[in-house]
Amino acid sequence: MIIVGKKVLVVDDEKLIVKGIRFSLEQDGMEVDCAYDGEEALEAAKKKEYDVVLLDVMLPKMTGFEICQQIREFSNMPIIMLTAKGDDMDKILGLEYGADDYITKPFNILEVKARIKAIMRRSTKQNADVQAKVVVFGDLKIDCESRRVYVNSKEVNLTAKEFDLLELLIFNPNKVYSRENLLNTVWGYDYPGDVRTVDVHIRRLREKIEDNPSEPKYVHTKWGVGYFFQN
After folding, report:
1. Which of 103, 138, 175, 209 has a CA between 20 and 30 Å from the CA of residue 118?
2. Could you tell me which residues form the DNA-binding region (predicted)?
3. Which H helix or E strand runs over 74?
4. 3-state secondary structure at position 230
5. Partners of 135 in the beta sheet?
């Protein structure tokens, strides 16, 4: 499950809770924004499309239910409600206002992470269902379902990791990934290798899909930062 770079908005007026959630999610490679009242949360949601919103029910200025309802007027971004109340009606009400899930306080941060990842999996699957199975960039054609890649209509044989790298980059065009992010995302956090593994795979990938690997038109290097796909 790819979580590096996923954007999360945490909304709660208890700053210690926000600080703890933020630290834990950032340790998993997520990008976290924070808001401490209803108006601030709604403004943030209008400015950026988040992969998940963690939204407390009891907030200054606006309730979480009101925020959830207003967000649903312009976005389908996933929302997980946080509530300190054990009243089932609150939970049901939250879902009726358009929330995707709820967590009751006090909670374990591992449960929060599990719920976020579950929401992201569902969202990714829904996006994939409407996303083209075949993607074409110039003379490069990627069949995501069969995991086949063609250059000038001729199939090139990529290893599983080379394909995973290419797929991640093409579906996030112009987004620069550090070597560490690519290593953690494609190989996993427990992979014993180092960032040179990424460089080797990028070099081999270029040799297979680029007309001139030393002057690539698809997989580019951002010196001192990492790699990105230019569409």
Report:
1. 175
2. 132-231
3. none
4. coil
5. 142
pLDDT per residue as tens digits for the range 81-105 = 888 766 555 655 556 777 888 888 8
For the cut 90, the answer to whether the pLDDT of residue 114 exceeds it is: no
How much is the pLDDT for 72? Answer: 85
Q: Are 103 and 78 in contact (CB under 8 A)?
A: no
CA dist list (Å): 131 to 126, 144, 158, 164, 210:
9, 10, 22, 17, 25
What residues contact 93, with CB distance under 8 A and at least 6 apart? 65
Closest CA to 79 of 64, 59, 61: 64
User: Do 181 and 29 touch, CB atoms closer than 8 A?
Assistant: yes
**Cα separation, 57 vs 159, whole angstroms:** 47
- Flag whether the pTM goes above 0.90: no
The strand pairing partners of 81, in sequence order, are 55, 102
Asked if 57 and 64 count as a contact pair (C-beta separation under 8 A), the reply is yes
8 Å CB contact between 52 and 116:
yes
At 193, which CATH number?
A: 1.10.10.10
Query: Residue 216: which of 140, 157, 149 has the closest Cα?
Result: 140
Q: Is the bond into 106 cis (omega within 30 degrees of 0)?
A: yes
**Domain identity same for 147 and 103:** no
Domain presence at residue 1: no
Tokens for 29?
Answer: 């490679």
Which distant-in-sequence residues (6+ apart) come within 8 Å of 210 by Cβ?
216, 217, 218, 219
d(CA 195, CA 4): 16
Q: Are residues 31 and 109 in the same domain?
A: yes
